[in-house]
Batch of 2 targets.
Target 1
Amino acid sequence: MLQQYNKKIHWLSFFRVSIAAICLFNFLSLQPDFDLLFGTQAYAPADISYLLSNKSYIPSLVKINEALNTVLQIKYDSFLVAFRIAYTLSLISLLIGFYSRLSAIISLALFVVFINSYGFYSYGFDCFANISLFYCFIFPVGNYNAIKPSKNIEQNTKKYLRILQIHISIAYFFSGFEKILGFNWHNGESLWKALHNINYASGINLDFLAGTPFFLIMGWATIVLEMLYPIFMNIRQTRKVWLFGIIGLHLSIAVLMGLTFFSAIMIILNIAAYYIPYSNSGFELKMLKHFFKKNNSLTIAN
Amino acid sequence: MFFAIHFTLIVIACCLSAYKSYCEFYHFQKNTTVLNTVEKLLKPMPVQLYGDISACQYGFGFFAPNVKSGGCIVFENNTNIYTPEFYGKEAKNRFSVFECHISDFLLKDKATLQKNKEQVLYDSLRIKYYNLIYKAISAKLFNQNKCVSKQSNIGFTLFEYPGLAEYRKNIRQRQIIKLYQINTILNN
């Protein structure tokens, strides 16, 4: 039975499972406040708020509900309940690999409609969640560790890996490039401002470092890490150091600015694109070996 | 071929986003000929639809070229101050993104006014729209907090922490700037 674990974890299965999981956790974390943000009793009611973010080619939830009302009389809040259930189920289905491609396209469609309906609440996490769900649909993510694997298993997944790597590299390069255009990123002021923004306050105070060059160095370190990402992540000798730096950057964003979901999805993308495909021995196997060594009851053949 | 087009669209969107935010930040006149030509490429319905689905129309200039100022919507009733409250951190984060959009709009408007009065082109519909949102939030907070006084006001307040250079000069007080305010009359 344990022979099946004696394989490297495939980056595509990690990508599918972790993207579905992070989108699911993010959506579940909004549930206690769902009505306050999106319902008819929201601070900015749906029928007003959708006007600002409405893109002409993607229907908003309000528009879909209005269209449905011509046939069935469904209250908007009841319609939202149906949406919440459908989106959650599609993500669970994607996570376990049950008709992965179909689950991915349903998740993507529901996500895009949701983001279009409430565009002014969306931030970096949604951008990368959208990109990742799109790739879950395009890539053969259902080939590995899926409850219902695809019938035609595509052996060559390298081209998909390159696509993900190129996209992430472009994203980091432009993120660093736009920062270097701002003079406040050159003297540490922007980093200082970001950490003191009332909307992202975390409670961790770094003011005692104001007299040191800490903010200047960290500001430049962010720019260098991001702009040179496409080069150093693609050189075998520097990949691990750069990955360590980037993960460190995202952990700092999570801890100091409270943007946990954004940081988590960026770390997932980095691990999927640049750690798992290049790790010599699967970490899943290492963890299992460690577990069974401890319990001393079973052994795993190499 | 498909992915060549895909990445071309991503790079165009990123360049466009970088150029626009650079011009807005430094108050440079945008080159409309270049901008219109590039935007024309992204305008056709299939391109826009594909961009929305694949998210390749996004730029990636997070917190750049400048970090935006933080602020929030504040409702005042009978000397009491209320702000929209949420149970979870994620909802709070998302609402603050919305507040960022408002502060962006209000600050951009001010910046244009200071630069050139003749070129003030603010979107009057957007002001009306925000007023509508403010009124909806007022009503919600009024009922939520069981307010009594009919006279209330709601607006957007900016909380500016001193910059690094100012902090080093021992300026430690957070500045509270009322950017916008409207009066509302509410009944239970």
Target 2
Amino acid sequence: MKSTEAPRELAIDKSKHKFYEDLKDGKIFPELKGYEMAYLFIIAMAYGVYFNKRIKIKNMKRSISKSYIDKQFEWLIKALAISKNGVDIIPDKAEIYKIAEEYANGGIEIIERILKDSKPGEFESTMEKELTKIQKEK
Amino acid sequence: MGNYRPFYGKETILFSLNPKKPFTIIYAGTGSGKTTILDAIAWCLYGKEIHKPQPLDTMLNDDKRDELKKNDMVNVSVEIIMGESETKIDYIFTRSISFYKNKEGRVEVIPNTEKFSAKVKDARNNLIDAAEADVPARRVFPEDIQHLFMFDGEKLQHFFEIDNMRKTRQAILDITNMNLIESAIKHLKDISKDYKGDEEENPQLEKLNAFIDSVEKQIERNIIEIKENEDNLKNATIKLNSVMESLNKAAGADKDLRKLINEEQKIRGLLEENNNALETLEKRRFDHLLSSLPYLFCKKQLLEAREIIDKTYESGEPPITIRTEFFNLLLNKRKKCICGTDLKPGSAARKNVETYKNKTPLSDYEEEIRHGQAEMLSLLRENSKFLEERKSSNEEENKLKQSIKDWNNQLGLITKDIKGLKKEEIESLYSQKDFQIGEIERCSQRIGDLRGEITRYDKDKRRWEEEKRALEKQLIKNTEMKEKFGICDSGIEFLETIREELITEVKNEIEKRTDDVFKQSLIEPRVERICITDDFECQVLDKYNKSIYASLSSGQKQILSTSFMIALRKESGFDSPILIDYPFGRIDVDVTAELINGLKKVLEGVQVNFFLIEGKELTDLVWQQMKSYTGVLYQIKKIKDKRRSEVIKHEKY
């Protein structure tokens, strides 16, 4: 098992960069205005994980500073990697973040689709419904 | 009253003579003949109707007129009997006029039949015919100041609003009989002209004449401007009265409207508060949702990762590369421990190291992994509260939404009510009212300024006239004429001094009395004192000497005017009864009570006769307030299908 360094900046697909920017500016969903790209990346990753959509990034654009990722989220990213590849992945930081990037790439597509088709308030209500369902699961 | 206007035959009204119950109330429906009684008194005493003047040939009662046969004659008469009681009579005034029906069937006044007579007490207390009836009439009820005894309550309310200074000054001049002094001065000036002779041209005299001429022209210009402003003031007052009438009509609705508008504003405030709270809560709820989402969406992975790590530790399974490399190096390449112990295959030391190799923790990553393990546990615990938090914020949100719904419902009802009350119409009336009040204030202010200027011009004029007279005196060559001119001059000077002193004295007295009476009648903490200025403006001042007249209520203004009238009446020394027509017509019910109480206090023992509109003015509340002070109660009632009214005395009430 190789030991690697974590990237300084996380990658997203070039084609999704504008969507991230628009989300951040509240153009697509006003309630998200002001959230940082790093946070949106985590949300996208969570969507990708939950809906099991992992997509390899074709045109990589490293635009999200890793330092902006909250410490707690770092462990979420590591937990995701451990759950997929076992504890031996811990030294391979590059691989850990690559997994997160691919899930985020899948997740952002889901978010894009939901926001595109949803009526006002539907995004939150669907989100809440899913979260409640998860919480109730033992 | 005999056949006088609506009164057929003889109708008698006996006003209360009981000092403990000095009020007499005469109530009637509109047009029944209430105000006509005041005019009957005025006609009897002065030979003219003052309140509702009508042609003389209509004075005969219509029913009586119809009864007349050709060449029949009939009298219209009014008799006023004054005294302490029905037997102790001091004066009897009688005025009559004769009518007849001519051959053509037309009823006419017989020329020169109007007679006025008076009976007065002689030295032995016997009633004898007065040589000149006008003399005792003037003594008892001087015509010049009749408005101080017989007044229209409605006009009284605006007494000081319109041409305050002129009215105040005029009233003071009336009771001081100043017109007599003025005519004496004028008379003396006319006489002295005869003693001047044809004086030579004198440049100084010409200069003084030019000054006087210029100031007189300025006074004339001011008078013209005053007249213009008075017309504007009158128009604005008429318009204001009309607006006030409309507002009074809407009074009930207006009060409700103000209440509703206040309530509407309150609810709008609460709605805004609730909407803001809801907005904040919704944002908080979204943030909460978003912050929980990553952990909950990845809950399965977190649990799996934890399980993997736990299994790693529980099984003692050697993890990852570094540990393996270290032990391989030790056991396979060096075959010696770092302390020098031989690790030969089969040796006890080698067996021990091999045991450690199998039991070694996750070396460099142990700390990181253990930390992660704790973090994951904390994340899972933290997010297990999600539902509880959601439930509590859901309740809060529902409560707020329900509250907003309720307030919106209430607001809808109120808005509907407000629309029903013609909000725009009433608001427009209020803005018209404000505009007309502004106009009245502007005109009054201008009139006041112009009158102030006239007072100053008058002073200049008098000064120059004095100089002129002194010069004229010098220029008279004839000694005898000079002496006579001098006598006139001293007389004029003397009378002018008396005039000024008298006016000042009476003004100060009236000011003090008005102040006393007003304060006795009304408790208005803002009022410090009533003041009549040097320019004869009656002002109500607060403790900072600021005029607060404009902020007084209609009733308070009426009490102020009544106080002024009472002060004038007391100052004039004429102890006559008071007759007030339509006293409560345009004032609020609560103010009416205040006014009645005020009148009770300040007019204690004075005979006061009220002429009230049935129902509108004589309400249950007014009657309850006045009952204990009322000695006599009359009703003037129109007789159905007849052209006459009858006077009904209510003995029991």
